[in-house]
Amino acid sequence: MPYQPENAVVWAEIPVSNLDASAKFYAEVMGYDMRRDNSGHKPVVDIVAHGVAGHLYEAPPAQRGTGMTLHLAVDGALEDALTRAASAGATQTTPIITIPPGRFAKIEDLDGNSIGLFQPA
């Protein structure tokens, strides 16, 4: 029988060119609790969550239009998150798309990373 983990995604790392600016961006857009961690081999900013989470780290991001898309849960209405994203400097790259589990739209963050903003149904 094939392996079927409870969560296929266990951690997300988002490469950014400026750790402080990107931490501010994600905190503003998503409303997440972001915590800087200097305990490892290089600083990261953790996205604090109760389940699967991740962090920002300074590294060359993928070229715009390449790489994977990470979908992040928004608090409240998707439209409000998209407004915050635009105000913070993001570019919306898709319209709002409805699927059985909810609705999402894709943005590019400050470094061109493809991020899905997801509102559960």
Molecular structure report:
The chain has helices spanning 19-30, 78-88, and strands at 11-16, 34-37, 44-47, 53-58, 69-73, 91-92, 97-99, 102-108, 114-120. It has 121 residues and is an alpha+beta fold. The protein has one domain: Roll (2,3-Dihydroxybiphenyl 1,2-Dioxygenase, domain 1). The strands form two sheets. Strands 5, 6, 7, 8 and 9 form a five-stranded mixed β-sheet that branches. It is globular and about 40 Å long. The N and C termini lie far apart (31 Å).
Compact summary:
This protein has 121 residues and is α+β, with helices and mostly antiparallel strands. It has helices spanning 19-30, 78-88, and strands spanning 11-16, 34-37, 44-47, 53-58, 69-73, 91-92, 97-99, 102-108, 114-120. β3 and β4 (53-58) form a beta hairpin.
Into how many domains do the coordinates divide? 1
Reported for the largest beta sheet, the result is: 5 strands, mixed
Low-confidence stretches: none
Strand fraction? 35-45%
Q: Output the CATH homologous superfamily.
A: 2,3-Dihydroxybiphenyl 1,2-Dioxygenase, domain 1
* CATH architect. name: Roll
